[in-house]
Design goal:
CATH class: Alpha Beta
CATH superfamily: TT1725-like
Number of helices: 2
Protein name: DUF503 domain-containing protein
Shape: elongated
Number of strands: 4
CATH architecture: 2-Layer Sandwich
Structural class: alpha+beta
CATH topology: Alpha-Beta Plaits
Helix content: 25-40%
InterPro entries: DUF503, TT1725-like_sf
Length: 97
Amino acid sequence: MSVTVGIARVTFRLHDNHSLKGKRKVVKSLIEKSRHRFQVSIAEVDDLDVYQRATLGVAVIGNNSRVLNSVLDRVIDYMESLGLADLEDSDIELISL
């Protein structure tokens, strides 16, 4: 049996934000709404002290790489569709163990 881990790194630009407090509100909303809709792990992983950028890591585990890639694509599309921040960049990596 093979195990595959899907990882996405998603960077958002928060144009109208002027404080870390405002950033935390947006990041918390992105994380909570995405976790509620999808069964994935999400955390802020970079740019912690930059108030106009948020970088989130998303992880999912399974045995079908196509399904995992699709899930990560849908999570990224969903986060972008929320309109809370502008999607700046995203990368998906699948690791088979």
